[in-house]
Each structure stands twice: as C-alpha cells, then as structure tokens.
Known about the structure:
Structural class: alpha/beta
Radius of gyration: 21 Å
Order of helices and strands: EHEHEHEHEHEEHEHHEHEHEHEHEHHH
CATH superfamily of the largest domain: Glycogen Phosphorylase B
Number of strands: 13
Largest sheet: 7 strands, parallel
Distance between the termini: 19 Å
Number of domains: 2
Helix content: 40-55%
Strand order of the largest sheet: 3-2-1-4-5-6-7
Amino acid sequence: xxxxxxxxxxxxxxxxxxxxxxxxxxxxxxxxxxxxxxxxxxxxxxxxxxxxxxxxxxxxxxxxxxxxxxxxxxxxxxxxxxxxxxxxxxxxxxxxxxxxxxxxxxxxxxxxxxxxxxxxxxxxxxxxxxxxxxxxxxxxxxxxxxxxxxxxxxxxxxxxxxxxxxxxxxxxxxxxxxxxxxxxxxxxxxxxxxxxxxxxxxxxxxxxxxxxxxxxxxxxxxxxxxxxxxxxxxxxxxxxxxxxxxxxxxxxxxxxxxxxxxxxxxxxxxxxxxxxxxxxxxxxxxxxxxxxxxxxxxxxxxxxxxxxxxxxxxxxxxxxxxxxxxxxxxxxxxxxxxxxxxxxxxxxxxxxxxxxxxxxxxxxxxxxxxx
Length: 371
C-alpha cells in the first residue's frame, strides 16, 4: 500500500480527450487496488470519458488551449485557465490531496500549478512521443516526469525522466494474452476500424471503398467492425452490404479492447493509448496519424510500431481508397506477415506502467511524510 496518510486522496488531473483520460483511469484502478482514495480533476470535455473512472471524489475546472488562435482567443484561454487555477486551489484546500499526477491536456496545467501553490508534490506523465504543451510548463517543478515511449521529443534540457510505458485499463489487461486469431484459408478475417474522438469523415470513406475493391474471395471472408460517425452510419452499412461484406457498424463500442483482441488487423489513428493497446495485446495495424495533432505527435507514436515492422503508417494526406486498398491487398493475402507483425507489436511499449507510476507516487508521499 502507498505510504503516508491513506485517507488523503491522490489527485489525478487529465482532460480533453480519451488519450489523456484512459491512462489516468488505468492508473486510478491501480491506486484503488493499493487502497488509495482517488480524486479526479478534469474539464467538461474530459468528463465525457469519465463514466467508468474509479474516483472517490471529483471536481471539474475550466481550461482551454492558449497556444492556438489570435490574441482574443489566447486572452479568453488565459482567463479560463486562471479560473481553473482558483477552483483547484479552493478544492485542494478542502480535500488535502497527499500528491498529484498530471496526465496532460490543459486541465493538468491549473491543477498541477494549484498543487505546487498548496505545497502538494506532483508528478507528470506524458503519454505521447512528443511532450505535450501543458506538460512542458510543468516538468521543471515536478517531483518526477514519466514517459510512455523510449523517445520523448520537446523535452527541456536537464529534465530527467523515467520510462514507464502507458497505463492500460483493466479491460485491456484482461485480453492482453489472447492468442492471435486463426488465419487459415477457410477462417474469417476480422478487421477493426476506428478513428478515435476525431475520426472525421475519411474513416467512413477510405476503408469502405478500399474493402469494396478487394477480390471477392477475400471480401467474402471479412468480418468488419467499424466505428463511424453517427451521420455516416446508414451510408457505411449500405456500402458494406453492396460489397457483400459482413459488418458491425456503430458510433461507439464499449468493448473495444475485446474487439481488438479478436482482430487480425486494426485500422486506426495513432493516439498514445491506441498504440499502447496494440502493443499490449499484440495486433498488426495500419495507422493514420491525425494531421492536425499538436506538434505531429501521432506520427511519433506511430513510429514506435512501424520501426518494429508491426504497423504500416499512412499519412492522412495519402489515406485514400487506393493507398489503403494496396496495403490491405498485401496484408490480407499474407497471413504469415500478419502473424509476424502481431508478434513484433507485442510488448513494444513497456508494460507495467500503472504499477511503476504508483511506486513513484509512493516514493514521493513517503519522502514528504519523512521530511
């Protein structure tokens, strides 16, 4: 069990996207196993991903991105962050967290600054291969900086880090040892397609068109699970039906880890959680980094798998029916390559991140208690 006053919570701050929230949720699950109370600090956007977050306490703060837009937008963002700081200061005074950990996204900035002002030690976890802009403003005052991948770009000189990997949710860990599905000539071929929170229309267009152009003998073996935007559902289902492809199309799948474990191939964005889960379960992929991602961090994430020959990376500018169709034709006709890509993906991202992070927090809390 983590040392110090176990009745005082560990504050976890994350927000914006599932890419920040899911690792925080996985870490919270580990803290709960160790008997710790968890305090979640997030914003309105992050709260949408927090339905299953195992927090004993939670509060929302205002936050915004100060690095985009003109002077007016930056001013509004600064005001929002200032309001978030005041809220966090007030809530931390009442709730007295023993330590805090920021998982990125702009809610982390006012929350960790409030921790520092209140004398609460905090750490930073970076999920991506490029240090996020909020985390860049926090690392110099952090008790520790943990990184997910072997490389971390945009890190200030002199800042020491520890590689721990990305925490994965219990639902991912539960299927991590699932064997690669049989891929003989008579076996079905399972394809999983999802585009994350910013999937955009291209994930409802290019994959369907590419699959429709595959040879009939391949199409008839396909079982496609496709996460598509609500407004695209009817068209995507209709196009698959015309192509004679068995499909399950929905705007969201709550059991995505199980479906990933059942897949022979995954087509997706290259968010940090996605790359980590592909590594934890060991599945081949076609990765399409989000072109508008800050500092192109998804391309850095994708390289973790592509350099290991575990993934094919298609830049968004080349993610179309023809390029994806060529990749699918090559991969699906060669089950041996899919199997080798799956093996190459397995364990490429360091495992045991939640426990390693909890150990770091334990050291911080114990050091503060002994001071």
